[in-house]
Write a structure and sequence with these properties.
The complex is a heterodimer of chains A (330) and B (496). Chain A has 330 residues and is of the alpha/beta class. Chain A has 12 helices and 10 strands. In chain A, helix 3 crosses helix 10 and helix 3 packs antiparallel against helix 11. The longest helix of chain A is centred in the C-terminal third of the chain and has 21 residues. Chain A is globular and about 65 Å long. The N and C termini of chain A lie far apart (55 Å). By secondary structure, chain B is mainly alpha-helical. Helices cover 75% and strands 1% of the residues of chain B. Chain B is built from 22 helices and 2 strands. Chain B has a two-stranded antiparallel sheet with strand order 1-2. The chains are: A alpha/beta (330), B mainly alpha (496).
């Protein structure tokens, strides 16, 4: 208590003395001088939470102040994303934003868009895969694609995330690229990839379009097979899974991404400090090893690149969601 | 195999690992005894610490902390009617009723001993039958979960004492407020009025703290200047009368542990649902169901065994398939990946010594619960010596902290206060609050499993009976309902 008061008093007197000087400059030179909150819009234990926590741990070591991960969950990500956007732009609340920010506003769930934030760094992109039950008669993506085309609309069921979620859009994109209607394969909403993979193993659905790392446990257990990834290149962790382009000649790729962002209007100094620290964290052995262990992809983009990436993703998602009837009509 | 077991013993009985286990045990007891701080949260808080540990102490810390937390939740439930974790909610009223009858010692003794024994059963099943039980659990699709949710809701009728109509009312209120938030199937916001917090729904932990603890505080305030002390002042001999309870209710213990392990092993259902179901089963099969709700030990034996056995059970699908059995193991799976122990059947082949080490820690943690739990109860008794006008504000403070911790925002506190008043009004009018919590817990599972099943079957109802396990569960549910209906109607007919 006494220490706190003394600090406060010295702070006040310092401020008094320095009244002639530019005050913000003093404050910024010492950023961060108190703990920073890193908001995670998804639950403890998931992939986004794990990524946020490793980034926070590395930033903490680098910048010398605690970076506390706070899970603000619910509302399909709206709650956490709006907590980041509406926080004070003082650099002491930042957050991990995810691909949903390019999707939710098309559905009419929120007003927030990618440009509601100060983008700092893109850290990770995971492309979707196409998984089937290990007992499925379809051994290759070609056989599955033929079976999908031959089946009456709505007969086959796919899952992987909630209605209108990123893996749902991956399915829609793939179906459209094959010249089929977006609802040719019916979507069964799930509470994420793990329950969907379990339902695949239980025989509840035919296809799961989550990312390959999310399907890894079931594939290793011999319950599921991954037939393709919807990405420009194969995943080095899963070398024998072909891309859609090599197998079907379809050039369709979309991914779930995670990045760090701050509220709009943070000062340039704080922005630069954070971007430099994030770049260092991204290049660190700890981060790269951690992501490789989980099978997560790593992709870096600086603020300008991240903003452009989100703008492009936002446009593509808007088009796909409108075509699929998922977007809220104006 | 024997060399792997020896290696595992070497890994566990290392001064560093043992220190980690002891510290996380104390941490777990503290978190569990604080209302609103759950076993899941204990795990989440441990994760950053385990980043920098080798696999055995990392997993040992989580195993120990969660086992302790689930037990420790029983202590404030019995003393203050404040479930420390959701897993104690099912028998909070019963425990508190026992305390008011002056049987606090017996209640806490039973909670401690049967938590230990139930935990050990769960671990034994995990060690001996993990692959085959996981095989059963993985076959559960939305059809099976739908029937399971129906069976769970049926428990509301068993757990509510008194008028079944009031029990139904409370359950339906729970189901109705469960609809607030984003629809689990279509992803469309319902009853949110454009409010971002409401989009996340009615979080059930602040609600639970509200209806149980805050409503009790309000009752306490009304009598604060009368009897100065709550319940009773001292905690006497904990283990007196335990022999008799064990002799009389050993079948409850076995059934509770079996049901708990099984429910724990089912993905998506954990210790809290295990406790609800076990409590309801105890009452259903009891020779003296009329004593339930008046401070009767039988249901507590069964459900306190069940929630601790569920912890071990939840590791079964997590280790074998990488599918979380509950919210704790959802976090554990992440840690397993981080430590290079990727879940799957191969984990038993690639790193047997690590898995055996986890099993040994599981057993050790449960044995350690006996002395540490005893010490925790002894320490907590000081709470009871605090005068009411000091104690009540302190409890409210803990409630506020716990509710805030769930949502990381004042929204949790608002929910807690609103449901404190709601719970108080309900109980003043003889409406039980426990079914409301059950409805809130199971509502989403019920809706989601029904909606996804209908999408899968293209609107065909018969599919709910076409899969073997679903058919069995469906028949069981409908039979139970039929029997209840018949019993309810019989006296009416006799009266005519």
């Amino acid at each position: 208590m006494r220490i706190n008061r003394r600090h406060m008093l010295s702070g006040i007197s310092a401020a008094g003395l320095a009244s002639g000087l530019s005050l913000p400059a003093i404050g910024q030179a010492r950023y961060p001088n108190r703990p920073v909150t890193l908001v995670c819009p998804w639950g403890a234990g998931g992939g986004t939470d794990a990524t946020a926590r490793i980034v926070a741990a590395i930033l903490e070591k680098d910048l010398g102040q605690p970076f506390n991960v706070v899970n603000r969950t619910g509302g399909s990500g709206v709650v956490g994303h709006s907590a980041i956007a509406t926080a004070a732009p003082d650099g002491y609340t930042i957050g991990m934003i995810t691909v949903e920010i390019t999707m939710m506003h098309h559905q009419g769930l929120t007003e927030l868009k990618p440009d509601s934030y100060t983008p700092l760094a893109l850290m990770n992109v995971d492309p979707p895969g196409v998984q089937v039950n290990a007992n499925s008669p379809h051994k290759t993506i070609k056989e599955l694609a033929d079976a999908v085309k031959a089946a009456p609309p709505g007969r086959m069921k796919a899952s992987g995330t909630g209605q209108g979620g990123i893996w749902h859009l991956a399915l829609i994109g793939w179906l459209q690229a094959m010249g089929l209607r977006p609802d040719h394969v019916a979507w069964v909403p799930s509470n994420g990839a793990a329950p969907a993979m379990q339902d695949l193993a239980a025989g509840g659905v035919d296809i799961v379009t989550c990312s390959v790392p999310e399907a890894k446990a079931m594939i290793d257990a011999g319950r599921a097979r991954s037939l393709a990834v919807m990405a420009p290149q194969r995943n080095p962790q899963f070398r024998d899974v072909p891309t859609l382009n090599e197998a079907l000649g379809i050039n369709y790729s979309v991914g779930a991404w995670r990045g760090i962002a701050a509220p709009k209007g943070i000062s340039a100094d704080i922005n630069n400090t954070l971007v430099a620290a994030l770049k260092k964290a991204y290049d660190s052995k700890e981060f790269q090893e951690f992501m490789a262990n989980r099978g997560f992809g790593t992709t870096w983009a600086d603020p300008a690149g991240f903003a452009a990436y989100m703008a492009e993703g936002d446009r593509a998602m808007g088009a796909a969601m409108t075509a699929a009837g998922l977007a809220k009509r104006a | 195999m024997s060399s792997a077991i020896l290696a595992a013993f070497g890994l566990v009985f290392d001064p560093y690992v043992l220190t980690v286990i002891l510290l996380s045990a104390i941490f777990g007891l503290f978190v569990g005894a604080m209302p609103g701080l759950t076993a899941t949260m204990a795990t989440a808080l441990l994760v950053p610490v385990t980043f920098f540990m080798s696999p055995v102490p990392a997993l040992g810390a989580i195993v120990t902390a969660t086992a302790m937390a689930i037990f420790a939740g029983d202590i404030p439930a019995a003393m203050l009617r404040m479930p420390g974790t959701p897993a104690s909610a099912a028998y909070t009223d019963e425990s508190y009723a026992m305390s008011r009858k002056g049987q606090l010692e017996l209640n806490l003794g039973v909670n401690l001993v049967f938590s230990v024994l139930g935990g050990l059963i769960g671990v034994l099943v995990l060690i001996l039958a993990a692959p085959s039980l996981a095989e059963l659990a993985i076959n559960f699709s939305s059809f099976e979960y739908f029937w399971l949710a129906c069976l769970g809701l049926t428990c509301a009728i068993f757990i509510s004492t008194g008028d079944p109509v009031k029990g139904f009312l409370s359950l339906f209120v729970g189901l109705a407020i469960g609809c607030i938030g984003i629809d689990p199937a279509a992803g469309y916001p319902r009853f949110t009025f454009g409010n971002v917090d409401l989009m996340s729904g009615i979080n059930f932990i602040p609600t639970m703290i509200g209806v149980f603890a805050v409503s009790e505080l309000m009752r306490g305030v009304m009598t604060v200047d009368q009897a100065g002390r709550p319940v009773q002042e001292k905690v006497g001999a904990l283990f007196r009368g335990l022999g008799e309870v064990t002799r009389k209710y050993w079948t409850n213990f076995l059934r509770g542990s079996a049901v708990g392990t099984l429910i724990g092993a089912l993905p998506g259902a954990g210790a809290d649902i295990a406790a609800w179901v076990s409590y309801a089963m105890a009452k259903r099969f009891s020779k003296e169901p009329e004593k339930f709700g008046t401070g009767h030990i039988e249901g507590i034996v069964e459900s306190t065994s069940a929630n601790n056995s569920a912890i071990g059970g939840a590791w079964i699908p997590a280790l074998v398939f990488g599918i979380p059995g509950d919210s704790i193991t959802a976090i554990v799976i992440g840690v397993l990946y981080m430590k290079g122990m990727n879940p799957g059947p191969t984990v038993f082949l690639e790193n047997p010594q690590l898995i055996y080490a986890v099993f040994i820690i599981f057993i050790l943690a449960n044995l350690l619960m006996l002395p540490l739990g005893y010490a925790a109860i002894r320490g907590a008794r000081h709470l009871l010596a605090i005068p009411k006008n000091v104690l009540l504000p302190i409890i409210l403070l803990f409630c506020v902290v716990g509710s805030f911790a769930m949502t990381n925002s004042p929204y949790g506190i608002v929910l807690m206060l609103i449901f404190g008043v709601v719970g108080w009004l309900m109980e003043e009018n003889g409406i039980p609050v426990a079914p409301l919590i059950l409805g809130l817990v199971l509502g989403e599972l019920l809706e989601h499993s029904f909606m996804t099943s209908m999408i899968k079957s293209d609107g065909e109802f018969l599919v709910f009976f076409q899969r073997p396990i679903a058919g069995l569960l469906g028949a069981l549910t409908l039979t139970t309902w039929g029997l209840m209906l018949w019993r309810g109607l019989r006296p009416a007919r006799a009266a005519i």
